[in-house]
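Illustration: Lipoprotein.
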Amino acid sequence: MKKWLTIIGSIGLVGVTGATVVGCHQPTKVERLKNEISKAKRLIYDNPNKQGVDELKQVVNMTEILIQTDEMTDDQMDKIGLSLKLAIDLIEGM
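Result:
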């Protein structure tokens, strides 16, 4: 009986652990970059006449083109994402 309980407990533990790992989705770098683009687009839409918005539009357009080419490295995606975050913060702070 003790062996059966150990086996059943082990199977249950493995099942719960597997479900937890599958349930924890970490966004990819491309997904995070797309999230930054959507934030930038909202900012552009909400503040069309604010200083720096035209430049942000250009960065967003270029970033979308680069994503479509699917030839960016992880490092490039990180740098572009950081640039978008900084631009968004600067425009929101004005």
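Reading the tokens back as a structure: The chain is about 80% helix and 0% strand.
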